């Protein structure tokens, strides 16, 4: 008997969203697929989604220009993908176009279609188990964050920070120089520091919360950045 499949698992560019570490993550950052959240393209709709909507087709494999230069050249760097995996994904789209998206997802689930081409076993179509691919958006996101306790007292309310190396469980924030003094003062209180923030997505902000687990306060004068490591907890409902 076939397992139930979800259209959100299949992105228009050929990504198998269900295999991403962010997809329906139980903690921290979570994404429901490229058609709904566009978490990997927070500043705008994904170019592939926009193109499919314009052409009124389901995915790139059904396009008369397939495979186009955009598909070949703009592989998903945020997933850690390289040119070899981009070629694999283009082939995957051809299979999807031939057998249909529903059957393509079923074969992904039952292991008769490979989930990656990084190993000979996967290329042979016999992966032992589903492997999740880690997404990295180093330096891509701008996020608004507040540090507790006393965000107003320390001038740490709605700080516009850069986010790097995000994962469902944690991230690194790079704070602007205007926040350094207040953050240093908060650190000197020797209290646990909480973080509440919002990621921009195509469908509005996504709230998150976490705890500061490390910082580069002592090294920031020499390298020009103040970096803060955050361990994420369940998505926050608290207002900044």
Structure commentary:
With about 240 residues, the protein is an alpha+beta fold. It has helices at about 45-55, 70-75, 85-100, 100-110, 120-125, 180-190, 220-225; strands at about 140-150, 160-165, 170-175, 195-200, 205-215, 225-235. The protein is built from seven helices and six strands. About 35% of the residues are buried. Mean pLDDT is about 75; it is low at about 115-140 and about 235-240.
Order of helices and strands: HHHHHEEEHEEHE
Could you tell me the strand content as a percent range?
Answer: 15-25%
Mean pLDDT score, rounded? 76
Question: What radius of gyration results from the CA coordinates?
Answer: 20 Å
Q: What is the count of DSSP helices, taking H or I runs of 4+ residues?
A: 7
- Identify low-pLDDT runs: 117-139, 236-240
The main sheet orders its strands as 1-2-3-6-5-4
Distance between the termini: 48 Å
Shape: elongated
Number of domains: 2
What are the defining features of this structure?
disordered C terminus; 240 residues; single chain; elongated; Thrombin, subunit H; alpha+beta
Summarize the structure.
This protein has 240 residues and is of the alpha+beta class. It has helices at residues 47-55, 69-73, 83-99, 101-110, 120-123, 180-188, 220-223; strands spanning 141-148, 159-164, 170-175, 194-199, 206-215, 226-233.
């Amino acid at each position: 008997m076939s397992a139930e499949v979800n259209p959100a698992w299949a992105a228009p560019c050929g990504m198998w969203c269900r295999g991403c570490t962010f997809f329906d993550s139980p903690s921290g950052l979570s994404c429901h697929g490229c058609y709904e959240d566009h978490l990997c393209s927070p500043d705008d709709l994904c170019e592939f989604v926009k193109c499919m909507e314009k052409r009124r087709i389901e995915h790139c494999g059904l396009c008369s220009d397939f495979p186009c230069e955009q598909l070949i050249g703009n592989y998903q760097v945020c997933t850690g993908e390289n040119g070899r995996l981009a070629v694999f994904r283009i082939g995957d789209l051809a299979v999807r176009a031939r057998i249909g998206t529903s059957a393509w997802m079923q074969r992904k689930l039952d292991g008769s279609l490979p989930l990656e081409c990084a190993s000979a076993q996967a290329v042979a179509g016999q992966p032992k188990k589903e492997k999740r691919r880690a997404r990295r958006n180093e330096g891509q996101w701008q996020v608004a964050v507040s540090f507790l306790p006393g965000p107003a007292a320390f001038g740490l309310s709605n700080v516009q920070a850069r986010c790097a190396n995000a994962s469902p469980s944690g991230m690194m924030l790079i704070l602007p120089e205007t926040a350094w003094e207040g953050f240093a003062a908060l650190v000197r209180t020797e209290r646990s520091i909480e973080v509440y923030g919002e990621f921009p997505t195509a469908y509005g902000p996504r709230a998150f919360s976490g705890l500061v687990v490390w910082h580069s306060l002592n090294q920031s004068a020499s390298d020009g950045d103040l970096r803060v490591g955050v361990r994420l907890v369940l998505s926050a409902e608290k207002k900044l």
